[in-house]
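#struct-help
A.M.: can someone run this one for me? Single chain, 221 residues.
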Amino acid sequence: MVRIIRKIIREIFRQRLTKQFINSKQYWENRYFFGGNSGRGSYKEEALIKADFVNNSISKYNINSIVDIGCGDGNNLMLFDQVDYIGIDPSETIINLNKKKFIRDNQKKFYLLNGNQIEIAKIANNFISNRNSITLSLDIIFHLVEDYSYHDHIELINNINSNYCLIVSTNYEANYNLVTPHVRHRKFSRDFESNCWSLINKKVIKNCPAKREVHLFKRTI
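D.P.: on it. Structure tokens below:
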């Protein structure tokens, strides 16, 4: 009942809440706190496209563990093939909800990302030790409007020793628009290809107004 009331409040005051944008982390905490979900990319056709890419990668590369940075409300997760999984998110509300949602599934664990990147990387690396693994960043990068948030995200991905990394995001530079303060487009691929990753597969999501792309990278070192 409390969550339903929060959602009603969010729908009534949506424009005011958007105008009060503070930063990326607070935006998503507020969104989930007031009953919002992870957005269109985590539902319907777009969710199926991502899940198909993830599941094909699991099968092709014998992946048996997933580290999902920015796991959101867990709707994508329910479409993935059953492998060991940890979800990481900066929203305390959504981490608590996911823990309740998947409480009977011992293969799934959730951790709050709150200035504790070093600790999270250690947890993730212990989790994936000596196993084929993939790190996911699904519709996260273009929601990291602050440079420090973006660079922290890339650094965390690099510090987790997964064999593969799957990114879904827009992949071009554009001027930041205050009309949609929670969105900032970046050319993320150059930051991966100049680091420890090599692109092995790519797909453009059709009929996507923002022109998002799916990039699968393999660790080179």
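A.M.: thanks! Helices lie at 2-12, 14-19, 24-33, 44-60, 92-101, 117-128, 147-159, 189-193.
D.P.: also worth noting: The beta strands are 65-69, 84-89, 108-112, 133-138, 164-169, 197-204, 213-219.
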